[in-house]
Amino acid sequence: MQKLAVFDFDSTLMDGETIDYLAGELGLEEEVAAITRQAMEGRLDFFKSLQARVALLEGLPRVRVEEICEGLPLMPGAMETVGGLRKRGYKVVCFSGGFRVATSHFARVLGLDADFANILHDDEGILTGKVGGEMMFGDSKGRMIVRLQKLLGVSTEKTLVVGDGANDLSMFEFAKTRIAFCAKPVLKEAASHVIDEKDLRLVLPIVDKMEAGGAS
Length: 216
Fold this sequence. Notes:
Helix content is 41%, strand content 22%. It is of the alpha/beta class.
């Protein structure tokens, strides 16, 4: 039977928040990070926070965005974990409330089966401060995981999700194995497992135990 593993990107597969790195180029990292933190803690509507943060990126050259995104640091153990899950028969996918300019690059690096994220709009190579895409809302990940499960014929019992923030809550609803990775309290409450160390390889023993019939 098909198995599905879905990872968040920012602060899960990647060590940090993409938009914070981009904002740093404009000297706005602290301002953007404060909005990001509120959204990830579930204290601010994700759609509104995304629009507000992206608006601050207006004027950033697209070529510089690509350079920054391709230089983002992977979370320790990301490569080994994705490879390990694929060897165990999982389709491995990334959902991100961030940006495809980053996720598509690392989907190739990590060997992911697919990535779903948002697109930063630019006009003649300069960011306009506008954004669109598949992961714009707080419930986007939940709606997308259901579509993938139907497409692939994957059950909730054969679905693994890993994330760190409030916008991962919606996909947690549709997975038996729900790992909160270095996560905000609101996500830990909904998790079946919690990892508080920055090492994604700790996901693999959890998966093996669950597949062997272990409780937690």
